[in-house]
């Protein structure tokens, strides 16, 4: 039998027998009990032979009876190939491929283990599941579109603080909006960035991700080289009762299937409702979503008196692959012909300063000059005991210095000089 050219996709195999003009597509492959089922299509590029020798049909790759029956049908159409031998070879490849996906891996050496990589730092770790969440209308979808555009163009020297480390096609799965609205927003973001328009792959969704995984995998295979998928939004992608574990399990299973195929998944989520204002905000729905995500960012919108300008802050809420990363933000300006993003520090927005950790708030208060413990306590809204112990830890790390003459605290001299030069 001629050796085919083999292309593997997410739960799919395409085998091209170039010498004889036959291509076999095996899609939607699934293992259930002792059987491996899927969709089989056989195409021909041979004169006088029908192009579709076998239209896409459900096929059991593990039973000899099925192979024998189909081989007989194909032989009646054309005898250019020993069809039973070919179908047995195809089935063997499919069985080995599907069963190799979950094979046990045994490790003894770790010198070549790599640091976690990112598609876009700090949001999208490669081949992982990540989340950004926030209130409705906070700009989550616009941020997702901006990120997709920067990866796709690629816009690696962008001024937004998005570190593009991988450049390949993406797929935007949209449960929330429409194709027309999404294209409109892309046009305005591209106009604001003054860059070439991206190649954008979009799929409007109506069913849950678990129920649509075949559709998504087929779309990714058709596009070719897809490296990331954006889910807009997590709740609609899960379907069902978001506080129930069953939809969460199904969604995560679908996400992991994409991850195994080399596709990173970044989900947009909403903030849980009716939370105590003093408590940390969380993703709406089962805690399982947050537990399974490798990194989670919260997007907060500041109050604004200008209806055409929004300031948003991004705060690292959870991570399994790094320490907590610094917060940052954007000023988003909605102009008649463009949407403009400007990278800003969260300390420029008083509303966001209160969300920073105590050490960051102390450093921010000391940018205005030296202060004693009492004044610092008032500035950062913390007790004297907590502030004093934090200041001593910060001094050990060289983040602050103590002035014995007046028992005050301040930033180290280089930091002060830096602040002065910036002014």
Structure, explained:
The chain is an alpha/beta fold and 423 residues long. The chain is 35% helix and 27% strand. The strands form 4 sheets. The chain has a 9-stranded mixed sheet with strand order 11-10-12-13-8-14-15-16-17, with helices on both faces.
Overall pLDDT metric: 91
Main sheet record: 9 strands, mixed
Count of DSSP E strands? 19
The residue fraction in helices comes out at: 25-40%
Distance between the termini: 75 Å
Number of helices: 13
Which geometry do the CA atoms define?
A: elongated
Structural class: alpha/beta
Low-pLDDT segments, ≥5 res: 415-423
How would you write the strand order of the largest sheet? Answer: 11-10-12-13-8-14-15-16-17
Measured by DSSP, the beta-strand proportion falls in 25-35%
Taking all Cα atoms into account, the compactness measure Rg is: 27 Å
